[in-house]
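Can anyone check this?
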Amino acid sequence: MANKVINFHDVYDKDWFEKTILILKKKYQIIDAEKVEEYLYSTIKLRNSCLITVDDGDVSFYHVIFPILLKYQIPVILFVSPKIIMNNQNFWFQEIRDFDKTKLNKIISNNYNNDLSEYSNESILKNCKIEDIWKIINAYKKQYGVLSKKKYNMSIEQLKEVHESKIVKIGAHTQNHPILRNEDNETSKKEITESILDLEAIIDDKVHYFAYPNGTPNLDYNNREVTYLKENGIRLAFSTESRNLSIDVCPLEIPRYGFSYGSAAFVRTKLQLGRYWESIKNLKMVSEENIRRKIQTKISLDKNPSSYAPNKEAAKAALTDFQGKLEENR
């Protein structure tokens, strides 16, 4: 059976998560991040293995996910944004969670002088620079008198506690969770570099892992971000591309399957279908990538696409000297 990386975000149903973990334990050998490093950077073999990751650092990790991982002694990588934790603030997508969708869409449409009512607010904002997203959020708050809301994410103390458990490896997830593809060179590099350095200061440990926000290759990040991660000594970086973990995977573009709901039968079916799941799902609905590209065209954002031409072979070649350095330091 193929190797997989499984990803979760916020999970508030403890029973569902425990049942899902038991399914994974039964079907796979659960491995840690170091084992994936060995697999991709040296000659060890993996078969029927599974790495578990969790993005964002929602407080449900501490209250729901972490206790179950401890119970079964299952290793995990938790990807967080240190600025969000240090400032006790929400991610932009958490901040708009309780906004009136129609009112927010009107503000967004006015901002771009275009009727965008057929698209979800989140899909539209995923095409914007992080600075512009917060300008829109603040405009909504001012216009409709919205006060500060509850905070969704873990505290510094909780982050340190899970890190000290030894089963949780902490990885970086940028500072503000922007779609890196939308940002200029300076902002993208700063989001990556500062998130790594700040996180290392919080946990008093080196950070070797990173997850791209949203994570679709060539839509949410590209070779530019791969290069920045390489410069910062990141060993493994994770996308949200749905396919199996194999020896030909680029260590800085590792695919993952996302899980957030579903019966035991659904979870088993999705695991069995693997990379075919997205194709089957898209038979009934338009893919997020197609929606996002339509929005990009409609609001005419200047992406300078020539700067982000996909070239995975070049990205792999750029890792050659980095891989050699890793081997020398082992």
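Reply from J.R.: I decoded it. The domain at 4-88+152-280+304-329 is CATH 3.20.20.370 (TIM Barrel).
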